[in-house]
Design a protein that fits this description.
single chain, 143 residues, alpha/beta, Rossmann fold, five-stranded parallel sheet, 5 helices, 48% helix, 22% strand
Length: 143
Amino acid sequence: MKILLAVDDSKYSDTALESLMNQVPPAHADVRVLHVVDVTLGDYQSQDVLEGAHQAKLSYAHELVNRYARKLKEAGYAAQPLVKQGGPQETIVEFAEQWHPDLIFLGSHGRRGWKRLTLGSVSEAVAHHVHCSVVIARPQQHG
């Protein structure tokens, strides 16, 4: 089974990892761990600052996906880390169209109202635009 685990650096991605490991046996999984680096020119004031910040984000992204892939491998999964650049929603959907996973796992930040309208929902966009099943993992609410 081909599985895409889309991650950012949040507890929501940790929840998606736990969900994947609880639902899919390692023997049946070929996992790609994907993080999308989104850097826009408007974030920085000069080309030098832009290039330095971009390289720092890419370096951190590689550390992030390697950390998730290592956890999967330690649990017996076949896992490959991937870093792509672009808008998270579009890039995840494009990768899914190319690789054809059977299942996608990703976390949800659970934004509501105005924040959801202005920031968008990556998980919702992915779920509506891919041609496979999507598991949107949310941390359990206590209390």
